[in-house]
Amino acid sequence: MKIQQYYLACLSHASYMITDEKTKTAAVVDPQRDVDQYLADARAGGYAIKHVFLTHFHADFIAGHIELRDRAGATIHLGHRAEAEFACAKMREGDVVEFGDVRLEVMETPGHTPEGISILVYDLARSRAEPLAVLTGDTLFIGDVGRPDLLASIGVTADELADMLYDSITNKLVKLPDATLVYPAHGAGSMCGKSLSKETVSTIGEQKKFNYALQPMGRDAFKAIVTADQPEAPDYFVHDAILNRKERVSLDAAMAKTLKPLSLDEVLGLEKSGAQLLDVRDGIDFEGGHLRGALNIALSGRYATWAGSMLAHDKPIIVIAEEGGPGGGDDPAAEAVMRLGRIGFDNVAGYLAGGMSALAVRDDLVERTERITAPALAEWLAGKRSDAGATPIVVDVRSEAEHAGGHVAGSLNIPLTHLDERIGEIPAGRPVVVHCEGGYRSAIAASLLQKLGRRDVRDMVGGYKAWLAAKLPA
Description:
CATH architecture of the largest domain: 4-Layer Sandwich
Number of helices: 15
Distance between the termini: 54 Å
């Protein structure tokens, strides 16, 4: 038997395919929505994907269970507490799926969600008594545990889930053999916890030594520590958690409808009707010239997470990208639409045909964003640039915790996800310079401020890292 991990860095998401050589059977756990890689690997190895497991209803991405059911004929398996619109096999504590040398045994581990399960993986050729690995979903991470506070909006309190999580960790997972491999569903960068490791595999023994949440403590102490200082969850999480329960269209069907070229006139008409303009080029290219009113979220960063945080899932989205081959793997527009589909944003109206070349004779529609270096900003703040006008307002769009760890003196801290609602805190009539840690979020922020009508906006190149690198006071 073999366990293959697939790691999607832009969503910090790990999925798994477990294969058996005797029966040529495969099971996929927590798949991403674009499932071609699992199908291709199964074909290459001569396996049939007969099972797909969801450890829980994920909030940060749309899982590919519907796609694997439709394209491979796989049976969908869920924890018995899961309430879904689609047909599925409900699995209780101790229930088993076995094929050849592989035994998959369900362990109910609620806490991140009520229906959460972990999957014990036995290699029967090695041992029938002790599991080789446990796929822990979002119950246990490397260095952390799943946050229990995401479902308050749909009727389950953080306190109730923290109680469940304590029992799942202390009465079940920590009692597994120390050598049991731990394969979680997320890694560092995920908003499903607060201190996830960059490592993507560990052991129960290592986690008992080094994971803060697995240290011996009482229930109340555990609940206090796992609920404290959790990062703010993106708005789209509730949308995805609900959509993962539903019968829905497949990603291929959604893209066939949404990936269509639009003329500039069509784009402008849709924008007037409320469509959202999304420019997915790198910040430096966007700031050199972009369609007025567009929001910049570059494909080169944590695109899906920020798109889900900054865009509405119930209003049309128009993608503006570099030109590429139509529908191919080198087509940035297709990549942008597919990655929106990964988080359930199937509300794309199309993409601007020709990209920015469509505006070649419409300079009246093109807007630019000025960039400023950290040393130049420092001189301006010190009053040493008489040519630059009034002293600027520096807006730090990092999180409150990042800002508290060190910042430009006098800067106004408004986290990016709150910039729209708190724009009134930025004094009018003065230049604005935005920055983040490295430049990705500030490009989004600058584009949002311009979209909201602020004209004298600059983006600090390289962010706070550049400020510190220039040895400027903080």
